[in-house]
Every structure is written in structure tokens, then in C-alpha cells.
Amino acid sequence: MKMKNEVTYSRRLLKYLMVGLLVLLGLVCLYYGTLLSSGLPSADESFDDGVDPVTGRYVLKKDFDELFDDEEHNPEVLKSIPVCDLRYSELIPCLDRNLIYQTKLKLNLSLMEHYERHCPHQDRRYNCLIPPPIGYKIPIRWPASRDQVWKANIPHTHLAKEKSDQNWMIVDGDKIKFPGGGTHFHDGADKYIMAIAGMLKFPGERLSNGGHIRNVLDVGCGVASFGAYLLPLNIIAMSLAPNDVHENQIQFALERGIPATLGVLGTKRLQYPSRSFELVHCSRCRIDWLQRDGILLLELDRLLRPGGYFVYSSPEAYSHDAENRKIWSSMYDLLRRMCWRVVVRRDQTVIWAKPLSNSCYMKRTPETLPLLCSSHDDPDATWNVIMKACITPYSASMYPF
Ligand SMILES: C[S@@+](CC[C@H](N)C(=O)[O-])C[C@H]1O[C@@H](n2cnc3c(N)ncnc32)[C@H](O)[C@@H]1O
Predict the structure, then answer these.
(1) Measuring CA to CA, which residue among 241, 239, 200, 14 is closest to residue 112?
(2) Helices 291-303 and 322-337, axial angle in degrees (round to 10)
(3) Ligand 1 site, residue 287, Cβ cutoff 6 A
(4) Which residue windows are transmembrane per the record (predicted)?
(5) What are the DSSP E strand ranges found in 173-292?
(6) What is the CATH T-level fold of the domain 144-363, as seen in this structure?
(7) Which residue has the higher pLDDT, 161 or 219?
(8) Which of 80, 104, 291, 355 is the most buried (most CB within 10 A)?
């Protein structure tokens, strides 16, 4: 009996000892945790004077504090942002066609000025959040989204009918499906991309060419299937098109998860610095490249890296009728004066390359058009910069003649 009591007593003692040890350990952790954390900045202190990683500008902490003071004391600063009326579920603020009609802006339609950005005056801004359409669903995730999106998220089926023979998209129940076709590549963008790589004799018919082609601009992209099939090749394509008769094309591209933007080759420079892309693509993009002394081709020239390619699949490159022959020879002549060379021309596609250095420009007779841009022209300035019909030469320090 005595033995049993002693065993129970020892067990209890051990239990109290264990609990005591745990409490002690907890207190030690708490003490050191407080000591260490006092060395770390608190949420309020974490912002200091320094360079803003987004804008690259130097920002003082003081300015940042003032911003919040302003929010507190200035009654005009909104405390919360209301949701817009459902009518505005597809409003794109600076690309709002209604605003152009209402404010009677005089824009040159033939230059596509109406598809460029025109931001409303302060008192015409909505200051509300764009609501999703009725029935909106969480988007299908990449990579499945390359081939299908929820119809409820972009309730527009007009392109499926209009481009039914070109395999752009198909309505299938509550989904819209993308077989990968386009105006120029009915059988799928993947085969077309391999064919381009084959034309350029890239190993394994891979357009990335071992990492030499990484950034592509697809001008007049439709629903961006060309860009979609470049992603697995480690090529990022920026797909570009305006909100024109092919309504909602960019909306589809974005819903699919493909990098795309609303834009147009019109009167202003595209918003990329010079030498941003190794390859520019246009398949049946229906752009008149000869207009205004080749100003739009000269914009592509600014955007291409030294030796960059322009892949052009359009009737002017292959049709034998008189009109297309005439356009082809004028384009060929213009691009020759711009020092571009034809790398290969096969089937319905021609591929040009821009020069690697300034040497060809220097060999031209001085009055040859297009002239070189003035040395005061900053080729990397892009915000609201009107295009000029001149060649952007390489900087002499980086690319000696
Ligand atoms: C016939 S579709 C071809 C689409 C796609 N490239 C294909 O092969 O399926 C013509 C495309 O060019 C675009 N486009 C027309 N003029 C343009 C311009 N000036 N700048 C940019 N895109 C333009 C249209 O919006 C449309 O996306």
C-alpha cells in the first residue's frame, strides 16, 4: 500500500516539474522575442527615404506622410470608392468612344486617332470601380485558360460567328473555346510558329533560338493565339490591337491570361522604349505600311533590337495581282532605304531583319529618305510622343559605325 502511494506521489511530482519547465521555456522565448523584435522596424517605420521601385524617383518619407495627412484632413479625398452602375461594366476610362462623341473631339479616323488614348477632363471622370458583368465567375487558370474561358465573363459571341471559318473561337455551352486559329493560321498558331522558326533555320524549329528571341510584339493580334503559343517557348509576346470592329479581342486575350494591351499604330509612339523587341509580327494586320512616308514601319524600326526580325504574313507579300505587286515593290524599296534586308520569303510570309549597326545608314547618300532622326530626339521617350518619319540610329558609343 505504502509502495503504491510513493509511486503516485513521484508521478505527480514529475508532472508538475514538466509543466513548470514548459512555462519557464515559454517565458524565456517571450523575453528574447521582444528583445529581437525591438530591433526590427514597425509597420510605420518600414518606409524610409529612398528610390520608388516603380517610378524610379527619389521619394522622401515626409511626402508619403503628407499623403496620409491629406487623406485624413481633406474632405474631398474619397474614403471609400463606390462601385459604378452596371452599365459601365465595360468602360475603359481613357478609351471611351462615348466620350469622344460627347466632347466632339476632332480626330483623324483614317490615322486611327480615335483608337488612341483620350482621357476625360477631371469633372468627367467617374471615380467608381468598374463592376464585373452579371454571372461573373472566377477565371479559369492558366494553362487551361489558353484554350477556354467562361462565357459569362465576356458575354460577346460576335467574333465566334464572324471568324468561324478561321478557328478564332467557338461558343460551347457556358464556355468560349479557342482552337488556336487565326486569320492567317487556320490550322493553329503552333504549326505557324514552327514554320517561321524553320524559315529562319533555328535549331529544332524552336522560335526562341536558344534564348535569343525572348520579347515579341504581335501587331494586330486578334484574340492573341500567336502570343499564347509562344509562352511555352519562353517567349513573352505583347499582343496589341485596338478596340475596333474586332470588338473585345483584347478582353478575350486577357481573360485567357495572355499578355495583351489595347493599342494602335496610329499617330503616337507605342509606349515601349527603343530596342524593346527581338521580333515584331504582323499577320494580316491590315495596316497600310506605306502611309505617311513609312512612318509606321519606322516606329517598328525604333522598337526592334539591332538585327531584329519583322515577320510579315499578308497578301502583299505573296499575291500576284497587280495591286499587291505594286504595294510589295514600294514596301521593298522603302525597307531597302531603311537598310532592312529580306532574310527569307516563303509561301505567304516574308521575314526582314533590321541592320546591326549604323554603317548602312552612313553609306546612303545624304538626301536619301527617310532621314535619320535628329540627335536631340530621345528614342526612349514614349509618353504622348507623336511619331516622326525618321530612322532612329543607334547610339554611336554603344554601336560604333
Ligand atoms: C484580320 S485581323 C488578324 C488577326 C491576327 N493577326 C490573325 O492572323 O489572326 C486584323 C487585326 O489587325 C488589327 N489592326 C488593324 N489596324 C491596326 C493598327 N493600325 N494597329 C494595330 N492593330 C491593328 C485589328 O484590330 C485585328 O486585330
Answers:
(1) 241
(2) 50
(3) yes
(4) 12-33
(5) 175-177, 215-219, 236-241, 260-262, 277-283
(6) Rossmann fold (3.40.50)
(7) 219
(8) 355
Q: From the CA of 320, how far away is ligand 1's center (Å)?
A: 23
**Alpha-carbon gap, residue 137 to 135, rounded angstroms:** 6
Rounded to the nearest whole angstrom, what is the distance from the C-alpha of residue 286 to the centroid of ligand 1? 6
Measured in Å, residue 64 CA sits from the centre of ligand 1 at 43
User: What is each CA distance from 384 to 16, 266, 272, 380, in whole angstroms?
Assistant: 76, 12, 12, 12
Cα-based distances in Å from 5 to 9, 11, 15, 17, 66: 6, 10, 16, 18, 73
pLDDT tens for residues 296-340? 999 999 999 999 999 999 999 999 999 999 999 999 999 999 999
- CA 165 from chain center: how many Å? 28
Ligand 1 nearest-atom number relative to CA 112: 19
Which amino acid is located at 153 in the chain? N
Q: Look at the block and give the residue holding cell 532592312.
A: 340
Whose cell is 536558344? That residue is 210
Report, in this order, helix, strand and coil percent for the chain, each rounded to 5.
Answer: 40, 15, 45
DSSP state string for 331-385: HHHHHHHTT-EEEEEETTEEEEE--SSSHHHHHS-TTPSSPBPPTT--TT--TTP
Structural domain spans, the chain: 67-124, 144-363
% of the chain with per-residue pLDDT over 70: 80
| Residue 335 CB–ligand 1 contact under 6 Å | no
Closest Cα to atom 14 of ligand 1 = 220
Whole-number Å distance, alpha carbon 172 to ligand 1 midpoint, is: 25
